[in-house]
Design goal:
Two copies of one chain form a homodimer.
Chain A (H helix, E strand, L loop, with lengths): L1 E4 L4 H13 L5 E3 L10 H4 L9 E3 L5 E3 L1 H11 L10 H29 L11 H21 L13 H12 L12 H12 L6
Helix pairs in contact in A: 1-3, 1-6, 4-5, 4-6, 5-7
């Protein structure tokens, strides 16, 4: 078993934090996004979408998509639960994981993809859409601050995959100047707490 | 228990098909997107994101996000399994559900949102980004056709939530002229098969 990843990219970080919280160690193999090794034919056989991370199982099966990789380990090592416990809690965690992905991480990533020199010539960049993403992300941080007024973590009183997605999404916002506002005290307190966990350095 | 939804929109259709496959009936309450009832203060208390569908449980809990709603019912009524069985299969289904959402549904929806009169004045539309989405969707349909050469359904030999997301995503493409090509025989065969299931009319 091993995981293809690239340490500087946001999605592989989600899986590394998840594994650290679970206390699981998996060998990591770097696929260099900077030199577009993820677009070479041998890697496209592993993941036709070209994305990282990808989990390779011992039987040769490849699991792409960070949340799918996390799901695999949630099933094989349920403790501590990071996707919720019981029908209602699992649904709530999934709702928040998706909100953090669609409203925060996709927006900070969309801002970077559409405006950075890194993606110039690699994808059809639309700078105006990058600005839309940036504005959306900033608005969502304001909202998230109000949500965190009455609970410790994103999906309730327990740390879950939703916190991981939010942390990675917000931290990646630094690439285009998207930051937690000084007046966003609840979000600042949460960010300080999740960043202090050893997993955040994974 | 009830579900807030809007029959013409793609995400509520995902949940209706899922429930039909499970043989579950839940009362539906319409929230009119055409008159922006989902942006009114009383609905934003139910889902601050304004999206549909939302499941309301008998204890007053609101579960937004279509996949989270589906997850709730997968947990409360596991048969027939639509999210996979066992760690590896669940991870594979999640990978394909995400690919169908990110590569197909998000692209057909992105094409519509950024170019249609329906969203004019509601969101900051970027027509050029709508074209990027349309081109991406068309390219992904070509790829999906090759993937379906050797298996019956999107995630393997069993119908799953990945088929639901793909069906809804592809059908929604009609709004902006994104269609399965006549030469895409595998994809055409699959589309015919999943469209023939009674759930497709839900």
């Amino acid at each position: 078993m091993k995981i293809y990843e690239f340490t500087q990219a946001p999605n592989p970080r989600r899986v590394r934090i998840f594994l650290a919280e679970k206390g699981i160690t998996v060998p990591l193999e770097q696929v260099n996004l900077a030199t577009a090794d993820n677009r070479k034919p041998e890697f496209l056989k592993i993941n036709p979408m070209g994305g990282l991370p990808v989990l390779e199982l011992d039987d040769g099966t490849h699991i792409a998509e960070s949340v799918a990789v996390c799901r695999y380990f949630e099933e094989t090592k349920p403790e501590p639960p990071l996707f919720g416990v019981g029908a209602k809690d699992k649904a709530i965690v999934e709702m928040w994981q998706r909100r953090m992905e669609l409203e925060i991480l996709s927006m900070t990533a969309g801002s970077f993809r559409n405006t950075s020199d890194f993606f110039k010539g690699r994808i059809p960049q639309v700078k105006e859409y990058g600005e839309v993403c940036k504005n959306a992300a900033l608005k969502r941080l304001e909202w998230l601050d109000t949500e965190l007024a009455n609970r410790q973590f994103i999906a309730g009183d327990r740390y879950t995959i939703a916190d991981i997605t939010a942390l990675v999404g917000i931290d990646f916002g630094r690439t285009t100047g998207i930051k937690i506002g000084e007046n966003q005290k609840n979000l600042g307190r949460w960010h300080q707490a999740v960043s202090s966990r050893p997993s955040a350095k994974a």
